[in-house]
Write a structure and sequence with these properties.
Aminopeptidase; seven-stranded mixed beta sheet; 4 helices; about 25% helix; binds coenzyme A; acyltransferase; GNAT family N-acetyltransferase
C-alpha cells in the first residue's frame, strides 16, 4: 500500500534520512552532492530551513509503512509556475508506481494553488527519470538549464501545462 505524508519542519529527521540516502544512492541525478549535506552541512537548522521554503509542499511516500520516496513542489520564478524537485524512490521500491504517485500528488497540489505550469530540471542522461517525466506529459522547454560540472552539458528543463480548475 502506498501512502503520502506531507512534511513540516519538525519532520526534518525523516527528510534528512531520505535525502542523504538519495544523494548517496543517485549522485548522478541531483545538483546537490552528498558532501554538501554532510559534516558542517548536516545541521538541524539547515534541514528545517529546507522544509520551511515559503509556499512549498514536501512529500514522503511510504510503501507498506516504510518511507521509501520523496518529492517537493516549490514556487517557481514565475508567479503561476511551480517546480518539482528532490524526486527520489529507493531502489527497493522502484517500478511499483511510487514515482507516478509522487508526480501526481505534486501536480494536484500545484493545480490547487492555481499554478498553470509545472516545471523541472533533469540531468540529460537520466533516462529513467526522463522516461517517467515524458510519460507524465512533460516536454522539453528548450531553455538552457544549469551548466553541469563538465562545463559543457546542461540540465534539461521540462514543463507541463496544468489543467486550471
Ligand atoms: C526516477 C525514479 C524517481 C522513478 O521512480 P519509480 O518509483 O521507479 O517510478 P515508477 O514506478 O512510477 O515508474 C518506473 C517504471 O516502473 C513501471 N511501473 C510503474 N508502476 C508499475 C507497476 N505497478 N508494476 C510494474 N511496473 C510499474 C513504469 O511503467 C516505469 O517503467 P519504465 O521505466 O519502463 O517506463 C527513480 O528511478 C529514482 O529515484 N531514480 C534516482 C533519482 C532520480 O533520478 N530522481 C529524479 C531527479 S530529476
Amino acid at each position: 500500500m502506498i501512502e503520502l505524508h506531507t512534511l513540516e519542519s519538525d519532520d526534518w529527521p525523516l527528510w534528512r534520512e531520505l535525502r542523504l540516502a538519495a544523494l548517496a544512492e543517485a549522485p548522478y541525478a541531483f545538483g546537490s552532492t552528498l558532501a554538501d549535506w554532510q559534516g558542517f552541512g548536516d545541521r538541524e537548522e539547515r534541514w528545517r530551513a529546507r522544509l520551511s521554503i515559503p509556499g512549498a509542499h514536501d512529500l514522503v511516500a511510504l510503501l507498506d509503512g516504510l518511507p521509501v520516496g520523496m518529492a517537493s513542489g516549490v514556487p517557481g520564478e514565475e508567479e503561476d509556475s511551480v517546480e518539482l524537485i528532490s524526486m527520489w524512490v529507493n531502489p527497493v521500491a522502484r517500478g511499483q508506481g511510487l514515482g507516478d504517485y509522487l508526480i501526481q500528488a505534486v501536480e494536484r497540489w500545484a493545480s490547487d494553488r492555481g499554478a498553470r505550469t509545472l516545471r523541472l530540471s533533469v540531468m540529460p542522461d537520466n533516462s529513467k527519470a526522463l522516461a517517467l517525466y515524458e510519460r507524465h506529459g512533460f516536454m522539453d522547454t528548450g531553455e538552457p538549464g544549469d551548466l553541469l560540472s563538465d562545463g559543457v552539458r546542461r540540465e534539461r528543463v521540462m514543463a507541463k501545462s496544468l489543467a486550471t480548475v
